[in-house]
Design brief:
Elements lengths: L12 H10 L3 H14 L7 H14 L4 H7 L11 H13 L3 H9 L1 H4 L6 H13 L3 H9 L14 H13 L3 H10 L9 H13 L3 H10 L9 H13 L3 H13 L7 H13 L3 H13 L6 H13 L3 H13 L6 H13 L3 H14 L4 H13 L3 H12 L8 H13 L3 H13 L6 H13 L3 H13 L6 H13 L3 H13 L6 H13 L3 H13 L6 H13 L3 H10 L9 H13 L3 H12 L8 H13 L3 H13 L6 H13 L3 H13 L6 H20 L2 H33 L9 H8 L1 H12 L8 H10 L1
Helix pairs in contact: 1-2, 2-3, 3-5, 5-6, 5-8, 6-8, 8-9, 8-10, 10-11, 10-12, 11-12, 12-13, 12-14, 13-14, 14-15, 14-16, 16-17, 16-18, 18-19, 18-20, 19-20, 20-21, 20-22, 21-22, 22-23, 22-24, 24-25, 24-26, 25-26, 26-27, 26-28, 27-28, 28-29, 28-30, 29-30, 30-31, 30-32, 31-32, 32-33, 32-34, ...
Length: 788
């Protein structure tokens, strides 16, 4: 039997030491050290070599530091380090957000590194707690400074207070931060730039810009020179609150400050803030200054400008900046392309957006956000077929997979384009395959079903949403309440409202307004008022929509005085009634026969209230004047409509035709019908009914006057009717020939039939309107049968 081969000799110590020192990979170097300690336990590795490895691990691989620290006690001759080594370890754990590892190392510093923690080590552990947002532990550890660790009392220094200030500002407790700052000098600690910049940043982020600027002005008085970090904190806060004036003041102070100058971060803050506020001329000036001062813009800086231009609708400007970026040879990241694709989609130029989309495919930097943006752009433009192509690409793209934004965008877009059933299929496919769906996906589907009157389907989606563990938000409940109100299912709407409250979802002003409006339309006025009182009791202030619903409801309930009382409250609440509100009250007054009051309100609109009437205003008031026989006033409104540059619609013509016919001016009414057709407006069933009623009424009046009177009046009326119907027939034939392949109807027989029988005149009018895709309703057919 051959003898066993002896174990190979380990490398010489000097070789292992050289490997530890020269190994570029810190993890591999640590492995060599572990091998050295395990094979040469009596050999003490040089302390400088250990400290060198400690620093390398702290910089690149802090998670490996515990391995090195646990190795030190195994060495027979344990090395001793100064507190500087402790700071390296604790600071590394702090930056890596490893507070538990920092605390463990802090407690074992004497046994691990042979040193006791001083104030700097305490500060490093305190910083680890604050960076990890473990504020309660930070507060408790700070309180322990008075008795100190290891039986030693320590006095906090400036760095300690700076860390505590950062902690207070990070959790939003700026009042305590200000109080602590004010006590520093009494404690014998003079604030430095870090102190000021920390507090200014906290104040600016929490909407106390004035106090922050005061601190900037105070700094020179205490011999503290502001630097770019201080100015950057203020500028960032100013732009966050949209205070351009204050931001420009801080910018000017920075430019005039001989001891400070803008750095690259300053320019980014300025460009980002100005672009978001749409101040591109000023952004251009800042850009030029940046370049002139040798601050070369990088990809992120270009990205800020491109994103800002796209956000404000200047996609072409963004494309020009993109071209400059390409010429500069900078790396084009996916965020740049996403901004450009979104920008061109938002201005409706999907074709250009698609070119940038193709570029992302060629460069291989496309991500799921790119898909989502392009998909939304296509759906917003109604390009559903192209979305199908996009989905095929996504399915074949191994680097991207649909997320909840994808499904939300797709479902919402399909619903918006009228593909509710397909959207529902996608929703169900996503559910069955376990895909993540958010409230937006469900609410889009529910909202579409409710608008289509499919409340049963909406409830099914709502129930599935709850069963899937997705909590409904106010948008979901509001959509359901609105859907039930539109379907006149008020009890179901109230039931959903009660579920909303029981599920811990707070109602919004939209919730209450929708319910109040639905209750008013259902003539449940007392319940509407009850919800209004509840809304006010919960701290909501009624808005214009609330008042509009109540006034409309009271007017429908014939409680005009109560409606006027609410109307008079509107100015006292600091609200301004819009044209819709005026129209609601004008309609209510006219319906109650108070046309003169409605007319005064109309005059107030044009005069003191500076609220321009719209066509609905004129239609409502003109109808009111005709109802009370005020033909001249109604005619003056017709003139006002034309003078205001408004275009009468079929409702306007119907009101005027009805008014003229009711005043026995039927020929003028029929002439208006001719004008309607000449204007390209399609008559409605109401138009037909008005004329049917008018012809029957005038014929009955003529018959009751006797034969002689009938002959004189009828002949004059009849021949005008014959001519008008003949002309109308020709126009109808022409319209039919242009709009369909059907042969034109021969309507000239109307002229002969009118001479013999007035009911045929009605049928002739029927035939004249029929080619315009109009059919009389049951009411008009009833009148024809009645006359026959």
């Amino acid at each position: 039997m051959p003898a066993a081969r002896p174990d190979p000799e380990p490398p010489p110590i000097h070789r292992l030491l050289e490997l530890i020192k020269s190994e570029p990979d810190p993890a591999a170097a640590l492995g060599h050290l572990e091998f050295l300690v395990s094979t040469r336990p009596a050999f003490p590795p040089p302390q400088p070599l250990l400290f060198h490895l400690l620093r390398r691990l702290a910089t690149s691989s802090p998670s490996l530091l515990p391995r090195l620290l646990n190795l030190l006690p195994r060495m027979r001759h344990r090395p001793r380090f100064s507190e500087s080594a402790a700071l390296v370890v604790l600071s590394a754990f702090s930056r890596a957000l490893m507070p538990d590892a920092a605390l463990a190392a802090f407690r074992d510093l004497p046994s691990l590194l042979g040193c006791n923690p001083g104030v700097r080590s305490h500060n490093a552990l305190l910083d680890a707690f604050v960076r990890s947002r473990r504020f309660s532990e930070a507060d408790a550890f700070f309180a322990s400074f008075s008795h100190g660790a290891f039986g030693r009392r320590l006095a906090p220094n400036l760095q300690t207070y700076n860390i505590i200030l950062r902690s207070l500002c990070a959790r939003g407790d700026v009042d305590r931060a200000v109080s602590l700052f004010g006590s520093l000098r009494r404690r014998g600690v003079a604030p430095d730039r870090v102190t000021y910049s920390t507090l200014m940043s906290g104040l600016a982020k929490h909407n106390q810009l004035g106090h922050a600027v005061d601190l900037l002005d105070e700094m020179p008085n205490y011999g503290v020179q502001p630097d770019a970090v201080c100015y950057n904190a203020l500028l960032s806060g100013c732009f966050k609150t949209g205070d351009l004036e204050k931001a420009m003041r801080v910018w000017e102070l920075l430019l005039k400050d001989p001891g400070a100058s803008p750095n690259h971060a300053t320019y980014k803050v300025m460009l980002d803030g100005l672009c978001k506020l749409g101040r591109f001329k000023q952004a251009g000036e800042v850009w030029n200054r940046m370049v002139a001062n040798n601050h070369k813009p990088d990809t992120a800086t270009y990205g800020i400008l491109i994103h800002g231009l796209c956000q404000c609708g200047d996609a072409d400007g963004a494309a020009r900046v993109f071209s400059d970026m390409v010429k500069a040879g900078l790396v084009l990241d996916v965020a740049i392309y996403n901004s450009l694709i979104k920008g061109f989609c938002q201005v409706g130029r999907v074709g250009t957006a698609w070119k940038f989309w193709d570029s992302t495919g060629c460069t291989g930097i496309r991500n799921i956000t790119t898909y989502n943006i392009m998909m939304k752009g296509l759906l917003d433009s109604g390009m559903v077929d192209e979305v199908k192509e996009l989905l095929v690409q996504l399915e074949n793209d191994a680097s991207s997979s649909p997320d909840k934004v994808t499904f939300g965008t797709l479902i919402h877009g399909l619903c918006k384009n009228g593909f509710a059933n397909r959207a529902f299929e996608i929703l169900e496919e996503a559910r069955s395959s376990g895909k993540e769906l958010d409230a937006f996906s469900y609410s889009s589907m529910i909202n579409r079903f409710c608008k289509d009157g499919r409340t049963d389907d909406a409830i099914k989606v709502y129930e599935n949403m709850i069963n899937d563990g997705c909590k409904p938000n106010p948008h979901v409940y509001n959509a359901l309440i609105s859907g039930f109100c539109q379907a006149c299912k008020i009890s179901d709407a109230v039931k959903i409202y009660n579920e909303m409250a029981s599920n811990g979802c707070s109602p919004t002003i939209i919730t209450y307004n929708t319910l109040i409006d639905g209750l008013c339309k259902a003539e449940k006025y007392q319940e509407a008022l009850s919800f209004t009182r509840e809304m006010v009791g919960k701290g909501f202030t009624p808005d214009i929509r609330t008042y509009g619903s109540l006034i409309r409801g009271l007017c429908q309930d014939k409680k005009i005085d109560d409606a006027l009382a609410i109307w008079n409250q509107i100015p006292d609440k600091g609200l301004r009634a819009d044209v819709m509100m005026h129209n609601i009250l004008i309609h209510g007054l006219c319906s109650a026969g108070k046309v003169d009051e409605a007319s005064r309100l109309y005059l107030e609109m044009k005069g003191t209230k500076n609220c321009s009437p719209n066509l609905v205003t004129y239609n409502t008031l003109m109808d009111g004047f005709y109802e009370t026989g005020s033909i001249d006033k109604a005619a003056s409104l017709w003139t006002a409509i034309l003078d205001d540059g408004l275009k009468p619609d079929i409702i306007t013509y119907n009101i005027r035709i009805k008014g003229l016919c009711s005043c026995n001016r039927i020929p003028e009414g029929v002439l208006l019908l001719d004008e309607v057709l000449a204007s390209g407006i399609i008559p409605t069933a109401i138009t037909w009914n008005i004329l049917v009623r008018a012809v029957i009424t005038i014929e009955e009046k003529l018959r009751t006057q006797g034969a002689g009177g009938f002959h004189v009046l009828d002949s004059g009326f009849r021949w005008r009717e014959i001519l008008l119907v003949d002309d109308l027939s020709n126009q109808a034939n022409e319209y039919q020939t242009q709009s369909s392949n059907l042969p034109p109807l021969n309507l000239r027989r109307c002229k002969d039939s009118i001479r013999n029988c007035k009911p045929d005149l009605l049928k002739g009018l029927h035939l004249a309107v029929e080619p315009l895709k109009y059919l009389p309703d049951e009411t008009s057919e009833f009148f024809i049968r009645l006359r026959q």
